[in-house]
Write a structure and sequence with these properties.
With 340 residues, this protein is an alpha+beta fold. It has 2 domains: 135 residues, no CATH class; 162 residues. It is built from 6 helices and 15 strands.
Length: 340
């Protein structure tokens, strides 16, 4: 990995959030304490937009000949009825873009990230305050070209990195059988830098005005033995599996019957199967992943609620089906990339 310090090493004692009132000498909240000089409004405010909904502020303050820059936003962070994910999930997606950091966990009360991939260094922190409000703070540092000045700036920046580490919160460890934990890692990789939120085995993310959620994740009971090798899958077997599913979900409208996930010729990895159906106004898509030998069947079911009347509209239903198929097939490809 390149010289990246993405602050997710989870040092001991870094998990608890700090919500006490910060002293005037706190380098993590007072730019003057960090810079050791009185800051000023940056001459170039850049017209930067807020990291996400529900935030105000963001005026840039500068120090060190405009090489050190800090912006801070504040917001209530309250839950919005009907929202797919929290405002914090949106803020964190902005903060973690391009870093590989995990998606937002709903139980976090603070989080920080240190990104030192390029010449311009960056730290972002999200914190819940004593009054229940939230702050989002971003620092950017462009190191001085003068060696002596740069060394002194590095020492000050190191203090800020240490303070940011105190605001880190670790994601809960993946639970369940090995294959279920593997599937959770696949979900994390699949979502990448997208806006998303997780709480245990519950995952949600917005996509094309729909809210995708994980309805079931882990190891499933096989209605019939599914082959690992795609060449061993027979049409009659898939038809029989579809019949079993139709009996299990008698009120379902099947948009994509049980079938092989398309794969390129000679692609590595085993067979994957999927199906998409509607029950009432809920669109459901499921992925079945057989494992080698006598291994268990890994399954993942995604759901999304369709808008009133959309389930009966052919065009809206087709768009939702295609979205679900793209999500399922991308997850199948990610499983291959991560585990096969």
């Amino acid at each position: 990995m390149p010289a990246v310090f993405v602050a997710f090493a989870w040092p001991a004692g870094a998990i608890a959030a700090t919500t006490r009132k910060a002293p005037e000498t706190d380098v993590g909240t007072q730019l003057r304490a960090l810079a050791q000089q009185r800051p000023w409004a940056c001459p170039d405010q850049g017209g930067a937009q807020a990291p996400g909904p529900g935030l105000s502020g963001g005026q840039a303050e500068c120090a060190w000949q405009n090489r050190l820059r800090m912006r801070r936003w504040s917001g209530a962070g309250a839950a919005v009825p009907g929202a797919c994910v929290s405002a914090q999930a949106h803020w964190w997606a902005w903060a973690r873009a391009g870093t590989g950091a995990p998606v937002w966990r709903s139980g976090w009360t603070s989080q920080s990230i240190v990104d030192e991939q390029g010449p311009l260094k960056r730290i972002v922190a999200l914190r819940r305050l004593d009054d229940g409000g939230w702050n989002v703070t971003e620092w950017r540092w462009d190191p001085s070209a003068r060696a002596a000045t740069r060394r002194w700036q590095e020492q000050r920046w190191a203090l800020l990195k240490a303070r940011a580490a105190q605001w880190q919160s670790a994601p809960e460890p993946a639970s369940g059988a090995a294959e279920a934990r593997m599937l959770q890692r696949v979900l994390e990789a699949h979502l990448g830098g997208r806006v998303a939120e997780a709480a245990g085995q519950a995952w949600q993310w917005p996509a094309q005005n729909l809210c995708i959620g994980v309805d079931a994740l882990g190891l499933g009971q096989q209605l019939m033995q599914l082959p690992y090798a795609a060449d061993d899958s027979r049409r009659e077997q898939r038809a029989a599996m579809q019949l079993q599913l139709a009996r299990r979900y008698p009120k379902a409208t099947w948009l994509t019957p049980f079938s092989l996930v398309p794969a390129a010729p000679h692609a590595r990895g085993g067979a994957k199967f999927h199906a998409v159906w509607i029950e009432n106004t809920t669109l459901k898509g499921q992925l079945w992943i057989p494992t080698r030998g006598d291994g268990p069947l890994v399954r993942l079911r995604l759901v999304t609620a369709l808008a009133p009347g959309a389930a009966a509209q052919d065009e809206a239903r087709a768009r939702a089906e295609q979205l679900m198929l793209r999500e399922l097939r991308a997850l199948a490809a990610r499983w291959v990339a991560e585990h096969e």
